[in-house]
Specification:
The chain is of the alpha+beta class and about 450 residues long. About 45% of the residues lie in helices and about 25% in strands. The protein has a 5-stranded antiparallel beta sheet with strand order 1-16-3-12-13. Strands 7-8-4-11 form a 4-stranded antiparallel beta sheet, with helices on one face. It has a 4-stranded antiparallel beta sheet with strand order 6-5-9-10. A hairpin with a 4-residue loop joins strand 5 and strand 6. The longest helix is centred in the last third of the chain and has 66 residues. The protein is flat, with a radius of gyration of 43 Å.
Length: about 450
């Protein structure tokens, strides 16, 4: 590494002189760095546009799926009965009465002030399910916390809660056991004793008191029709899966009046298909507009300066904009997309008129679907051509810019090495000059002293 050699002999500011020379030498690198910075900004703009264009392509694919148009909504005439439509089912109605709801078993132990009494002198419990399955539960201790934790941590399908029922020292508790599943096929008994003891006919029941019996949910279809069609449907769950094709129904309380479930097209979901498509289309067009917008400024000399946006003049961006405008407004089946609420404005942006779409959907659902799918196919095709991850026009532009930026980065690094060599060379030259000047000064001093001695001898 070179050292500062400022004017040791010459008195010159050689460091500043070298810095000035290096600034001139580095001019090509400076221009290259500025060019790389500009290219990186263009790359970022292209990447942002490509992301939005890919999102438009995805929205178009969704709108083109027939399954997307099979969306169904189900409504209930009673707040206590909820519905969940999975789609694909036919429209229709069904009426039924809710005669009972499914509940889980809740049972209680006798009161106690010492939790170890629950174990009846043993160390384990065994839970017997309705189907005869035995699950052994062994607490880590005989205290109340250990017992409830052991039951709750087991996979026996029962949760335990300690409930204080009397004050005192010590207080009295009862152990509440609640089944995690509803229905008469999920009853249980908790017995003190090991699994082997219970299998052998032993074990003492701990939860001897029922606070709530397990029960099934019951609904009656076509109740009171008088035509022999009345049908009772009983099950352990409160959710009647597939009661109608593609529709699940959940009951939460007994209803005195008949409940009607109505299934039809999910207009909100269908409207969202069109709205999302138009929103994504506008995002792409808005991104293009902002990246190609020209700005007018005034320089220090008072002259007007007009500058284009980062993507102004970019052929791929311009083609994408023109093609999307054409695709979004192209007639489908001889009709304008505006008949289904897709309208292009004079400013080159699209709007989605939900009211107009709802009217078109009500008048002719198939025609409204064909219109949205037609627009989706057109704009989706344009978006895919631009954003395809392998050979999209925007993708290729991005790849080329990335390659160019890497090349410029390599060139800048080469310039760093080249300039460092040049700086060291200049420092060596100036250092050699100082050394030479120092030698000349020494010779001058010697000659001067010799001449002075000759002059004295002559005198």
């Amino acid at each position: 590494m070179a050292f500062a050699i400022d004017g040791l002999v010459s008195g010159l500011d050689t460091t500043s002189m070298i810095a000035s020379l290096m600034q001139v030498e580095a001019a090509p690198q400076t221009l290259l760095t500025q060019k790389k910075s500009s290219a990186e900004k263009v790359l970022a703009a292209l990447q942002a546009l490509n992301v939005k264009t890919a999102s438009l392509a995805d929205a178009a694919k969704t709108a083109l799926k027939p399954a997307s148009w099979d969306a169904r909504s189900a409504t209930s005439s009673a707040e206590s009965v909820t519905t969940s439509a999975t789609g694909g089912g036919a429209a229709g109605t069904v009426t039924f009465s809710v005669d009972a709801i499914a509940t889980s078993q809740i049972s209680l132990s006798a009161s106690f002030d010492d939790a170890s009494d629950l174990l009846r002198g043993g160390s384990s419990f065994t839970l017997r399910s309705a189907d005869g399955t035995l699950t052994e539960i062994t607490p880590t201790g005989t205290d109340l916390a250990s017992i409830t934790k052991a039951i709750n941590d087991s996979d026996a399908g029962v949760k335990a809660t300690a409930v204080r029922v009397a004050a005192g020292d010590p207080p009295e508790y009862r152990l509440q056991l609640t089944g995690t599943e509803t229905g008469t096929d999920h009853t249980f008994e908790l017995l003190a004793g090991t699994k082997a003891e219970v299998e052998g006919g032993g074990g003492t029941r701990v939860d001897g008191t029922l606070a709530r019996e397990a029960s099934n949910a019951i609904i009656t279809l076509w109740k009171g029709s008088g035509l022999g069609t009345e049908t009772t449907f009983e099950q352990s769950s409160n959710t009647f899966a597939g009661l109608m094709d593609g529709v699940d129904v959940t009951v939460t309380k007994v209803e005195a009046d008949p409940v009607t479930i109505t299934v039809g097209q999910d207009e909100k979901a269908l409207t969202k298909l069109g709205a999302d498509l138009v929103a994504q289309l506008n995002q792409v067009l808005s991104e293009i507009a902002s990246r190609t917008k020209t700005t007018t400024t005034t320089d220090s000399a008072g002259k007007t300066v007009v500058a284009g946006g980062l993507l102004t003049g970019d052929s791929a961006t311009r083609a994408l904009q023109q093609n999307l405008l054409s695709a979004g407004s192209r007639p489908v089946d001889g009709l304008s997309p505006s008949t289904a609420g897709i309208v292009v404005g004079r400013d080159g942006t699209f709007t989605f008129d939900e009211k107009k779409f709802a009217e078109a959907l009500a008048a002719d659902p198939a025609a409204a679907q064909r219109m949205v799918m037609g627009v989706a196919a057109a704009v989706g095709g344009v978006a895919t051509v631009a954003s395809d991850k392998y050979d999209g026009t925007l993708t290729q532009k991005i790849t080329n810019h990335e390659s160019s930026i890497r090349s410029m980065g390599d060139q800048i690094s080469d310039w760093d090495r080249r300039l460092e060599v040049r700086r060291e060379g200049l420092q060596r030259q100036w250092s050699a000059l100082e050394v030479t000047l120092s030698g000349l000064n020494a010779q001058q001093s010697w000659l001067t002293s010799q001449l002075s001695s000759l002059s004295g001898a002559s005198a």
